[in-house]
Specification:
The protein has about 400 residues and is mainly α. It has one domain. It is built from 19 helices and three strands. The chain has a three-stranded antiparallel beta sheet. α13 packs across α14. It is a multi-pass membrane protein. This is Transporter.
């Protein structure tokens, strides 16, 4: 089996690519994820499903051909993963941030992301304290079935062992079916709530309805709110007013960005490890406050290039926001429109929401053993069962709590 382990600094490059790509998507802007919580804009879901559809057959095809990867499907402990996902989804709906998108938002110059960093580290610290208690151990050990994937189980760093009667080639076949199914969901799920046409119909008709035109204008407006000026006909205008606001996420631009993100994770798993973001917060909490706690000791022992990839994510988002999309806000007081509509423009209230939401999100992420990067993105590409349990819990909680938070 062909294997390789890259030095830690390569994580900077991995993070840079993903940070820049996701910033172009609009994930660094908390309004994008708040609208996801309101079920008004399904950009993240559509694009992440496309990333799975492209990358999962690639990684399992290469694995069947004898290429070794640093597999890391998260352990499936049902209660802790499910409860952690519920807390994570609630915090996501409140803050508009994932752990990774906080670093992207800092790169985009968003002031409320500064408060989200403090909330995230405190949330990680709270789990560090709870972990060594009987309650914490019960959460991670009860109904723990190990690191399972569709058709297999991780038995060592480089090996996903197919279940009895299956081979690696069978896992590749499962991954193709998996990829096709997820692509079809993304293909037919309208990006915007109230969208009148499936992506298939949009491709056939080659036109936009007045509703779709209005959604494009509105999306471009919030993506560029407080950003740098750009010229007519520039790359920034094309990105902000045409490509990044497409209602049809199976057009070439969105597929390209999704492919870049997904295949970068595949490359990362070959080079060193999965893509994860929230471990850095536990590492920081341990270094700053809780160095002798059991969870901190486990993090210190197992930490990979997460701090490097988080710094790379920030740098990539900064590069994209300044030189590509021109969305850099210079840390002005920019309140997400959905938040302002519901809670007003008071800066202190928004900062409390950003801080509190990030606290809940990181507390849930560390309880579940991963976040949107490690559980959903990396886990989904690996067909990890724990990743899908976490994702279902996150989105169910996010939609329920988002409906409560942002009711008119």
């Amino acid at each position: 089996m062909m294997t390789y382990t890259a030095p830690m600094w390569v994580g900077l490059i991995i993070g840079f690519i993903i940070g820049a790509a996701a910033e172009v998507w609009g994930i660094a802007n908390p309004e994008t994820l708040i609208r996801l919580a309101k079920w008004e804009d399904r950009l993240f879901i559509d694009c992440i499903l496309i990333a799975f559809a492209i990358s999962t057959p690639v990684i399992y095809g290469l694995y069947a051909a004898g290429v070794g990867f640093h597999w890391s499907p998260k352990p499936l402990y049902l209660i802790g993963v499910g409860l952690g996902g519920i807390l994570f989804g609630s915090g996501l709906a409140l803050s508009g941030y994932f752990p990774g998108s906080i670093w992207m938002a800092l790169g985009e110059g968003r002031r409320d992301a500064i408060y989200a960093v403090f909330g995230a580290v405190l949330g990680a610290a709270s789990w560090t304290v709870l972990y060594q208690t009987p309650a914490g151990q019960w959460l991670v050990n009860t109904l723990n079935f190990g690191s399972l994937t569709l058709g297999g189980k991780k038995i060592s760093a480089f090996i996903i062992q197919p279940l009895d009667g299956l081979t690696r080639l069978d896992l590749f076949g499962i991954s193709i079916v998996y990829g096709v199914a997820l692509f079809m969901i993304a293909y037919y799920l309208p990006r915007f709530k109230g969208g009148e046409r499936s992506c298939l119909r949009a491709n056939i008709e080659k036109r936009m309805t007045p509703f779709e035109v209005q959604k494009r204008v509105d999306t471009a407006r919030y993506l560029t709110d407080g950003g740098l000026p750009y010229k007519k006909g520039s790359a920034a205008q094309k990105l902000n007013e045409y490509y990044a606001v497409e209602d049809n996420v199976t057009r070439w631009f969105m597929i390209s960005i999704a492919g870049i993100v997904g295949l970068t994770v595949v490359a990362e798993m070959f080079l060193h490890q999965i893509f994860g973001e929230s471990t850095t917060d536990s590492w920081l909490a341990g270094q700053l406050f809780l160095p002798t706690f059991k969870y901190s000791e486990a993090v210190f022992k197992g930490i990979g290039w997460e701090p490097f990839s988080d710094i790379g994510t920030l740098m990539g988002a900064f590069f994209a926001a300044v030189f590509l999309t021109r969305r850099y806000t210079s840390f002005r007081n920019i309140i997400p429109p959905s938040w302002a509509e519901r809670f007003g423009n008071n800066q202190a209230v928004r900062f409390l929401g950003s801080f509190g939401g990030a606290y809940l999100m990181l507390f849930g992420a560390r309880m579940a053993g991963g976040c949107a990067s490690g559980h959903i993105l990396s886990g989904g590409i690996q067909m990890a069962l724990s990743g899908w349990e976490f994702a279902i819990a996150v989105f169910a909680s996010m939609l329920i709590v988002g409906r409560i938070y942002y009711r008119k």
